[in-house]
Amino acid sequence: MPMEKLDALFGEGCWRKMTVEEYKRLRYEPASWTVERHRVHVYVGTGGEHQDEFLRGTRPKDLLRNSILTPSLGAAIMNAKYVNSIPVARIEAEFERNDVHLSRQTMSDWIIKCSERYFEPLYQRLREKLLEFPVAQADETPVDVIRDDRSAGTPSYMWVFRSGEFYKETPIALYKYQKTRNSEHPKEFFKNYKGVVVTDGLSQYHKLDRELEGFTNANCMAHARRDYADAVKALGKSNPDVVKRSIAYQALARISSIYKLEGTLSDIPAEERLVERQATIKPLVEEYFTWIKERLSDTSCLPKGKTAAGLNYSVNQEKYLKVFLENGDVPIDNSASKRSLRTFCVGKKNWIFCNSIKGAQASAIVYSITETAKLNNLNPYYYLQYLLEEIPKLIAEDRTIDNLKLDTLLPWSKDLPEQCKSKRR
């Protein structure tokens, strides 16, 4: 403000400057597009022994031959679909509104080719790292694939395999597309694995527990409470005393007591967690199983419906539900796997189905990259862009990549640029 105006208002010399007031506003700039024009000089011999021979200047490697795809564009498309759950048809429409004409077929083809050529080696390296963890977790969810040589409506499955919930430093979540839920699929993934795998009560994993030496299956306590919760919900607006006297309600109360104690142990070392579990949680678990067996043995008042299903589930899974009591690194349930599938499940509600097996396989690989990036507090877009910039440089003539070079690109690598790291912690 001009001094003359201040003197006129307050009187000459009768004022002083106070602390400057600052405020912020956030402005949004729509996505911008830049057309890169690359020029390569070409020469031809006009005489002598090199007549009619051509010489071209050097040029950077293309991601895909004769394609306009760049790392930033590829990362933007994959981030939109696999992180933000936007179908490629909507991405195509948004690009059109910005006068950028890219068909959904072209974008899908780019995703498939980039996953096969560039992300597959990193995926396999992450799998090797995952199998080094003493505890892993697994789950699966249905997915529709249109062109899979089977009758319409036949479900396929997207499996997820992840590191144990308590391993916070280098977490990994890997997706794998399969046509069925056959036990051969997890058996192939875990064929040389020595450790505990936490799952739902899927019998396929019980089979692996019996067949694979060194493989131990642990089951999910959250699943043990589902039927009880449904039974209580079915009671609706019954008299509160009637609800509280129900076997389902009492079972839920017992499981809740176990969870309440377990919740206090999440941030302590595994050794201490095991000691606390043995001292405080194990007695509650043993009491729970004694109680449900008494309910099932009472022929005068046998439970029915969902309540009976809940009691029988726990009895049948007893061996697997107790594994967490003997290993401080084993979580009480499989909720971490459910969280790892959440983004995929949101996505499939939007895009409904995969068009082909190759598309489903590519999606599994890209989801593995983006979900693992998120678990490691990376910004998925910048991480994808960085991978598409760097991996092509590391590929040898025989299409292989040295593991030591790949390790510099892993989501927890100290060599990643600061831009890849998420500001959200």
UniProtKB/TrEMBL annotation:
Q: What InterPro entries does UniProt report for this protein, alphabetically?
A: IS66_C, Transposase-related, Transposase_IS66_central
Where does the signal peptide begin and end?
none
**Transposase IS66 central domain segment(s):** 67-362
Give all residue intervals belonging to the Transposase IS66 C-terminal domain. Answer: 368-412
Cross-referenced Pfam families: DDE_Tnp_IS66, DDE_Tnp_IS66_C
Fetch the NCBIfam families from UniProt.
Answer: transpos_IS66 (NF033517)
What name is this protein filed under?
Answer: IS66 family transposase
